[in-house]
Amino acid sequence: MQSAQILLSRLQTQQAALTRASERLNDARSKLAGAQTHQKDVRNNLKQFEDALSDEQNPAQEKELRDRINHSKAELEDSTYVEQCQATEIEAEQQLRAEQHKLNALETQLDEFVRKRAIPASNTVASRIESLLANWSVIATPSC
Fold first, then answer.
1. What class is the 2-139 domain?
2. pLDDT tier at 33, thresholds 50, 70, 90
3. What phi and psi values does residue 88 have, to the nearest 5 degrees?
4. Of residues 112 and 43, which shows the higher confidence score?
5. Cβ(18)–Cβ(143) below 8 Å
6. Are 7 and 106 contacting, i.e. CB atoms less than 8 angstroms apart?
């Protein structure tokens, strides 16, 4: 039974690692979506500034619009934040896949352990293991 408890502990630890990886991926996706939305907003503002500039007669307002146009263009050219968010998302996806693979391997080990030992379903540890595996099949499935 000591081996089953160790394996169960490893499964729980790996499930926690998978959950953290899933949360990191969700966070990365959220940041990327925010960065992309910001870029879209800057593009829209740039278009509005350019349209307003063509109609502007006041030299002070023209200067202000030109400054805003130049700032918007510079912000669009500096896409490093979006690129960093994309790289973080890719990294998080890879980490999630790696953690899922580790969990799958542990589940396979547990299945083999149960088969070899022919642990009765009424056994407390075996019941806990079966219950956790049933829950993990729902929880461990990535939401992406």
1. mainly alpha
2. very high
3. -65, -40
4. 43
5. no
6. yes
Tokens of 37: 């939305």
Q: Which one-letter amino acid corresponds to residue 27? A: D
Residues whose CB is less than 8 angstroms from the CB of residue 10 and which lie 6 or more positions away in sequence, other chains included: 106
Q: How far is CA 42 from CA 31, 74, 111, 131, in A?
A: 16, 10, 54, 51
- Calculate mean pLDDT across residues 22-45: 96
For the chain, the domains span: 2-139
Phi, psi values for residue 56, rounded to 5°: -80, 135
73 with 64: CB under 8 angstroms? Answer: no
Task: List, in order, residues 6 or more apart from 76 with CB less than 8 Å away.
Answer: 39, 42, 43, 46
